[in-house]
Specification:
heterodimer; A: mainly beta; OB fold (Dihydrolipoamide Acetyltransferase, E2P); Glucose Oxidase, domain 1; SH3 type barrels; 11-stranded mixed sheet; 7-stranded mixed sheet; 31 strands; B: alpha+beta; 2 domains; 6-stranded mixed sheet; 4-stranded antiparallel sheet; about 25% helix
């Protein structure tokens, strides 16, 4: 008797694919099609002039919103440059001194004394665009200011995602099951792709947007928060949603730790450059190996780049790796060590076959219906 | 590519069911975020089966609301309710499933239940609604057996044959406006469900 389960491709290692890099504003592209590039090479240069930045000084100084003004070191209306002292609070009875530096060049536009949030108007800046990957320039679009690069990436597919492509350095905040709240999001996470844990709270998401975080990878998310980002959709969420931040959900809804397979790989890429494609439900981890260019040179055709996580059915066999997709123990991963030959009646009355899986820490018996085969081990 | 699917793959807009609509069917009320998360996980992992009675009750509530929102399985013109066999994934108890579809569709009159499978459809039985007066008793004779029913409930009378003759009598309660009626129903595993609930 064969028992079938869906197989999900969560990790596609060393895939040759096309990525796009875009100039942040008006500027010039410095490379041509066919040119080989390395991660540090500047492929475009632009001037970024628009935008504001909100800085929650009340939180950063650990004072009430009304007290922020007396700690501000610059007068509203004046220019301030990146790294200069913006606000300072001396040490108190129960806390150390707090120093807040300007995260960017700008003009102090406004301090809201009701919220303690300072609005900084960003000054025009010259921004260099590095290739960030080893690769070959495939196309250059001078109108859209886009550069397409053929490169080698390891792709992690989540269950759901939201947001246009965003890039940044990966920052793993803590453990795979940590709950990420507003307090875990600091201004130094600006421009980063952060790896949360088991859940990111609504306030954490909002704080991440305020602090200019580019993207979040989380095991779980609350359904109302995700629906708020995806226009109410879940089943067909991989569309064109955009709420100012990229999000990748690797496991499902509620508090679910990021799977061992994905979390282990993300830890290897901590502080490395990655590209999060929320609407495609995946994150690209560019190869850091210089010799990847040899493989890149050999590939001329690409499979469809638009597919989200591929799911197809497969027979369950001992030795295969699975993840649990129903309660209890949702999100846990293990290796099948046995499959019952006699059906079991569950407390719900459902009659089904049980399988036993071995996780890193224990053995679990679970209905075969409540697992998915995964293509990765841990 | 072939894919293992489940009951809830049959419904397009499961995620739009309000959490409070689910909560009203549950004796223990989880918070609305927990219900929304549960529904959302059923959307993405529809093939899973409920392990505990608690989870099963939430599945039943979702199924009721999903059927109510998209009543494609209730063919009013044919007086039939179709129950896809894969609904049995969440409970093997066909009587529970029939109760769920009755809750969802609130059918009136004489209705036939049909279990639909890929190979063959199966008649499960019928439902008849009685316009009850509170103080009346309802008298049924089914295939030579007599039944006395107190109004206020759904009552199942056995009728395992393909067709059963039914004799109904009451002082003031009526079926199709009549206090006495002889009629024939398709029978099956369920038999005849008498809906004697007071409106």
């Amino acid at each position: 008797m064969n028992l079938f389960a869906n197989k999900r491709f969560r990790i596609v290692p060393e895939n040759i694919t096309l990525i796009q890099r875009s100039l942040a504003g008006n500027g010039e592209i410095l490379v041509k099609a066919g040119q080989e590039v390395n991660p540090q090479e500047i492929i475009g240069r632009s001037i970024v002039s628009a935008g504001f930045r909100k800085i929650n000084l009340s939180q950063l100084l650990s004072v009430s919103p009304g007290e922020v003004k007396k700690h501000l070191q610059r007068v509203p209306g004046k220019a301030i440059y990146k790294g200069e002292l913006l606000a300072y609070r001396g040490s108190g009875l129960f806390s150390g001194k707090k120093i807040v530096q300007s995260p960017t060049d700008g003009i102090i536009e406004l301090l809201d004394e009701n919220t303690g949030i300072l609005k900084l108007k960003i000054l025009p800046q010259k921004v260099d665009l590095p290739a960030a990957v080893y690769g070959i320039i495939e196309r250059v679009d001078h109108v859209k200011k886009e550069i397409t690069i053929k490169t080698q990436v390891t792709q992690i597919y989540g269950i759901l995602g939201s947001g246009r492509p965003r890039e940044g350095y990966l920052k793993v905040l803590g453990g795979m099951g940590d709950l990420i709240s507003k307090n875990d999001i600091s201004p130094d996470l600006n421009d980063k792709i952060i790896v949360g844990g088991g859940l990111i709270y609504d306030e954490g998401l909002k704080e991440a947007v305020i602090n200019g975080v580019n993207g979040i990878i989380t095991g779980g998310i609350n359904a109302p928060d995700f629906k708020g980002m995806s226009g109410g959709k879940i089943k067909y969420a991989h569309s064109e949603s955009e709420v100012g931040i990229g999000v990748l959900v690797t496991e499902g809804f509620g508090t679910i730790p990021i799977g061992n397979d994905i979390f282990g790989l993300l830890k290897e890429f901590d502080n490395k450059f990655v590209i999060l494609e929320g609407n495609r439900g995946r994150v690209n981890l560019p190869s850091t190996r210089e010799d990847s260019i040899i493989s890149i040179r050999k590939v001329y055709k690409f499979p469809s780049n638009d597919s989200v996580s591929v799911v197809t059915e497969e027979v369950l066999d001992p030795g295969k790796f699975v993840r649990i997709i129903g309660s209890p123990n949702m999100g846990e991963q293990g290796k099948i060590i046995s499959i019952d030959k006699i059906a079991t009646t569950l407390p719900s009355g459902v009659v089904t076959y049980m399988i036993t899986i071995s996780t890193n820490t224990r053995k679990i018996r679970i209905p075969y219906n409540n697992v998915e085969i995964i293509n990765s081990s841990f | 590519m072939p894919k293992v699917t489940g009951v809830f793959d049959r419904f397009e807009n499961l995620e739009k069911i309000p959490a409070e609509n689910i909560a009203k069917w549950l004796s223990m009320h989880p918070d609305s975020a927990a219900i929304e998360n549960y529904i959302a996980n059923r959307v993405i992992y529809s093939q899973t089966v409920p392990v505990t009675l608690n989870d099963q009750n939430i599945d039943f509530a979702i199924l009721r609301e999903a059927l109510r929102a998209a009543p494609i399985y209730f063919k009013q013109n044919q007086k039939k309710i179709f129950i896809p066999a894969d609904f049995l994934q969440i409970t093997p108890d066909i009587k529970k499933l029939v109760n769920i579809v009755i809750d969802a569709f609130e059918p009136k009159g004489l209705i036939t239940f049909v279990l639909t499978a890929r190979t063959k459809d199966e008649i499960l039985g019928s439902l008849v609604t009685v316009n009850c007066k509170k103080e009346d008793m309802l008298y049924f004779e089914l295939e030579g057996k007599n039944f006395k029913i107190k109004p206020g409930n759904l009552t199942i009378l056995p009728c395992p044959k393909d067709h059963c003759h039914v004799n109904f009598k009451s002082q003031g309660s009526t079926i199709f406006g009549k206090t006495e009626l002889v009629f024939e129903i398709p029978g099956g595993k369920i038999g005849l469900i008498v809906d004697g609930r007071l409106s």
